[in-house]
Amino acid sequence: xxxxxxxxxxxxxxxxxxxxxxxxxxxxxxxxxxxxxxxxxxxxxxxxxxxxxxxxxxxxxxxxxxxxxxxxxxxxxxxxxxxxxxxxxxxxxxxxxxxxxxxxxxxxxxxxxxxxxxxxxxxxxxxxxxxxxxxxxxxxxxxxxxxxxxxxxxxxxxxxxxxxxxxxxxxxxxxxxxxxxxxxxxxxxxxxxxxxxxxxxxxxxxxxxxxxxxxxxxxxxxxxxxxxxxxxxxxxxxxxxxx
Length: 243
What we know:
single chain, alpha/beta, Rossmann fold, SAM-dependent_MTases_sf, S-adenosylmethionine-dependent methyltransferase activity, Methyltransf_11
């Protein structure tokens, strides 16, 4: 389909570009959560204008990897925001959805979707997930793994709440200002794989992830930034050798 003018942010309102820049800036956590609270009411309108495809791509990738049946599977949507990922998962037959987010404003929007059986306030990276070990069949983190957002040190905590054989679906952006974070994230993903904690099923680079909001981010000259979807499967606990 036609991509429109190549100039980054062409046709995007300046206020929208400012809101995106504000949450991606390395501001202190309380300030960042306040920004998300303030953004919650118009968040979906803004990401629609950005043609943000991560929720759709992540849900499609997870569904492809996930064995049927899905209706009974317990899923945790981490940094669930307003519920964009839940909508996509629900459409694909997942019904038992729990969500956590650090922003009360975002959770209020997520609650209004009626798609989650449980929603909890949790600031990932500073506190543990409000769930017992090995509780979920799948865990998603879509959009929050990025510079100035959720640190890559949270991976073991995501693994903790996933049952052996369960799936983890993660995304990050490949735009210039996120490349250092992406390299750190991929190093951490690789260390966990080498340690036998999980195995990689997918690392899919996607060229048209969302519209770029600045010329600096528009390195491809397409007016879009790229991103990546990762799917991992938690390894079963090895049984001690008999005898």
